[in-house]
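User: Hello, can you help with two protein structures?

Assistant: Certainly.
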Amino acid sequence: MNLEEMKQGWNVLNNRLAQNEIVNQRIIKEMIMRKTESAHDILYRQNLRGVIITFLIGAFVLPFGKLQGMPITREAFLVLETYIFLGLLYQGYMFYLLSRFNLQTMNPDTILRNILKYKKLSLDDRRYGIPSMLLIVVICFLLQQAFNVYAIIATVVCLLLGISLIYMQNKRQDRKLKEIEEGLKELSAESSACDEEAAQ
């Protein structure tokens, strides 16, 4: 085998290695995208459920209960409805940020900015959500003047159940947010590397 044939053989091998590297990079990128999209979908559905439940309680459950003679004063009803409406607006905006997620058409950095905004709102919600909920309960008790033992026990049990559910949901949300952030950072690094290669 002469030198020219050896060079051709090396060139063929180099081309195959380069093609394999491109294929491997594409496979890795698709795996990261699938994992990130899967984490986002879980978070998206969780938030959608939250928005739907809040809407149903505010728009149907409380008004229907009031019409059926639920023992709640007009003032306490208005306080609850206002609190639910404001919570719905807050959840709606967080849901909007999550809905702006499309790895096929959007830059990973843009999506990451939306996710970081969502994360900040979520942390604010944790910081102020439970204290504000407790404040609303106290206000409603004062307006209702419902200080009998059974009402207090029922309220405390419901609050403890609600807080434990919120805690479990927050833990799951943290895991999914971490997966999304890591995935988007990896995709952003991949895009930057590809841009640098294209520029050279």
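That covers the first. Now for the second protein you mentioned:
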Amino acid sequence: MKRVIGKLVCFLLLLAGVAGANAQSVAGAASGRSGELPKVYMFKEINAANLVKIYEALGREATGKVAVKLSTGEPGGHNFLQPALIKDLVQKVNGTIVECNTAYAGKRAKTEDSYKAAEDHGFTAIAPVDIMDADGDTPLPVKGGKRLKEDYVGSHYLNYDFTVVLSHFKGHAMAGFGGALKNISIGIASANGKTWIHTAGRTKVPGELWSNIPQQEEWLEAMAEAAKAVADHCGDNILYISVANNLSVDCDCDSSPEDPKMGDIGILASLDPVALDKACTDLVRSSEDHGKIHLIERIDSRKGMHTLDYAEQLGMGSQKYELVKLD
């Protein structure tokens, strides 16, 4: 009898050990402690077919009503991702191209003008286009932020089930560079939300933006916090693809951007936006193209890498990654 009881106890302890190990494994995977670095996939050759292939390499299917977030470009500019390049990917996921109005007095500050810019640049010919703050905005909570407690996104954003973040990686006059993190923070924010981020929570009134500019680190941190609000909202229903071409020091929001001084790098993609942005900046720095000095100067003079440092602190992702070359 004692022998039977002893075997039963051992069996129960074994079951408890297996259950505990499984629980630790699940917890470790959920918290990113699995030991595996996030993968960043890359094609050097930039074309429509490779854009579809790199999406497929991520292994995360865009389902439901899909928002494809990209910049449709300020009129006068010409470096934005071209409709011919992105058409196959957008149509493969049956996506709607989404944008929000700008907070500055350009030609996309009003919904009708934003839509016209998208039409004139050829985007309405390949997919539906939604200016998401046409009917106002809605708050998303910022968890663990020190600059913002909420992020204000276009109200239509809540209509979507999945987000494909399709970014043009390039420089930026204020942020140093623009990539995945900027695309989901400033890009998905309403005009009021853009003002909120740029002023690190001082005002939501676009007309008051330029008189409320904070210290550089403050607004970069606010941008990272707004990106976290979007990422938290999406959970696993989001993925990130960046095209590093037309590498001007200026953003697609500039109506007269400086011409690129270095050659194209490629298409990169990841499920980790921090890893993706870091990989893009690393490839600029390691390039043998002497023209890189202009983009590097723009990034570093604006303290652009602070955005990634802070986003990593917020738990958004890792600056360590595995680069997987696909060509």
